[in-house]
Task: structure prediction
Amino acid sequence: MVKKIVIANWKMNPVSSKEAEKLFKDIAKNIYKIKKTQVVICAPFIYLDKLNKISKKLILGSQNAFMGETGPFTGEVSTEMVYNLGARYVILGHSERRALGEDNILINKKIKGALSSSLTPILCIGESVRDESHKYLDFVKNQIVECLAGINKNYISKMIIAYEPVWALSTTASRHDFNPAEFLEIKIFIKKILSDMFGSKVELPRIIYGGSANEKNAKDFLEKGEVDGFLVGGASLKSKKFLEIINITENAKY
Ligand code: PGA
Result:
């Protein structure tokens, strides 16, 4: 059985290496009983090296990376560098990076770069608004089609797709009522797009939810929404809350 996955997106937090180590240790020392759930911490680049030396039970990821090994790209960090620091996952296409100008074409190149550096891409997709005429479905479809264009179908099952409606993120939420049934609907929609693109026999990736995921709504999303895991922002910065989400995922019936 494929394991569920709970991914922390620390974003631009915490402010010091000392605090990052403390948060990481608090999580690491409390997950020794977790067997059926993978736990990934996507920390700022500068903390990865130190965190990697603390515990191997937690898997590390970065929140971005530029394709390639080395080169004239001032300010960028390559997928190969991230891999060499011990990270195994990379968040790509997050709405906060899209808001800074990243488009599907660049994200597609980064996904290819990540795969060739043996990193697992966590591709974030999701609309900013839900319109009554359901144009948002075309928007999500287009994100998937463009971001995954030209990717070998054998890689699809190795990726993670994180559906994160921008309007449900804890920092920008305009609605607080996104519910598990709506997730299940979009999960089926995503699977259909992937089968149309890569053939009905393609092994599907894990499709996870992000957007104010927390210890209060996790159980419902798992059992009624059939999420394969979570991408957690705000609630991942408090070890107690994050550990609760991990435990709920581990013990969920779905
Ligand atoms: P949130 O963030 O859990 O704080 O809504 C999720 C994300 O942006 O990945």
Summary: The radius of gyration is 17 Å.
